[in-house]
Amino acid sequence: MRMPRLTKLSSTIVLIVAALLLELTTAVQYYSTRQGINRQVKETAQRELSATQQTAQIKQTVETAMGRLLPQIERLTYLHKTDSLRMLIRQALVREPNIVGIDYCHVVGADGAREGIYIFKPDEEKEELTEQVIDFDYTKRSWYSEALSTDGYWSEPYMSRYKVLLMCTYSLPVCNPQGERVAVLGADLPMRELSILTSQLYEHQERSLLPIILLHITGLLLLAFIIQRAIHHVRKLQAINADKERIEGELNIARGIQQAMLPKIFPPFPDRQDVDIYAQLTPAREVGGDFYDFLIRDQELFFCIGDVSGKGVPAALVMAVARSTFRMLSSQESRPEQIVSAMNATMAQDNDYNMFITLFVGVLNLSTGHLRYCNAGHKAPLLIHPSASGNEHNGNEHNGLTTAFLPIDNNLPVGAMPDWPYTVQETTIAPQTTLFLYTDGLTEAEAKTHQQLGRQRMTEAVISAQPKRLIEDMTNTVHQFIGGYEQSDDLTMLAISCNPSLKPLPNPEPLPNPPRRGGDERLERCERWKKYNST
After folding, report:
1. 485 falls in which pLDDT band (50, 70, 90)?
2. Which helix (H) or strand (E) holds 292?
């Protein structure tokens, strides 16, 4: 069972909205706090600078002091007397109590070099001064560019990077004798009163935090809603898992019922020495569409192997009907082609889902080894016998055994066409010969590389003609070939070893097939089947 599409969509939308809301809360908190502090600091600083006479007097004092200092700085700059310039700045700082620091910044030269120094008072209660090389690109600062373009520039209040203090800077351009502006001289003025107001500002930030608190509350409510939905989905998932366990339990019961329908006790005829049988069915899912069956009537072994198209429960239902039909017909009919024709008529009736069965039905005389068989679209069985057995079938020798595929007619699968005329074929099975039947789950077993096992590898895996060991070897071969890859199709194998009590007769000439409705009509039916199967 899958989660409904509408539920998945609504859950996704809720998660997206929650994430956006949380991101919005963080962004608003950061932006409003930063903007609020900057705005209030600037507004307060501007108000204090223009509102008090004391600030105006200090401003005038600084401008006057810097104006007296500027000509001497220009002269020393022109003479490249750096040490004298530093000494002059130090004297000015000691002389002017309102100035806490003076910076001197050269304009960038042709070689890209910059020279900037900053001399300031680290502690207002002490007379000692500190000199610091300016290590940042001051040419990109507003106070630098504005000073070069004006005769004097007051910066906006800012927090100093060298002192924990709010201050303003008054900057003047430094000119050479030719009137070119080559440097900037700046004096830092502390904003002590404004610093006190700034500290008071943080005590009243609760008012600006109200929208953020509301956003946080909304986010918490949304989070609670998400948790509630998560709990709901967990309970729903638990119900789905319970239904899944119930379905798996029912499928396991169905698998047991399906396995119980097939012969599973081996050897099935322990009191007989003329025949040995072993079979194995491994479904790809809990239940499958493969089946096999056999019974002995009137000294003849009736056997079959089939593969229903598709997998799972539908194929298992068709398999159950096919196996029951075969057992009922085999108890009355001795001709394999008639058994297959009757099964075809039954399975083709009301076949609305276009399911069909590849089927092989054989009737083996246990006294003579005479085999009559009818193939309905199934894989050709493999004959395995000792190389010195004298069997007339041409084949490949391997590990002291000769293997050859039984010739088969290409009849249509059962259920494909209700009036298809199925043909019968005959041969004689030599003593100590094993007839190996299988479904396409063996030859079409796929490895991780999507390479199939194939008939060649199957025949090379034959190292014994004993039915049980033969099937066990084939099972191991499939597992080694596919590795850890999931089994893609049902795998069924049936091995029959015949040891006739009488001397086997020579291979008879194949009996003529039953009358057909004309060669042209049969070819036309083949073409119709190909067209039907392709759709």
Report:
1. confident
2. strand 290-297
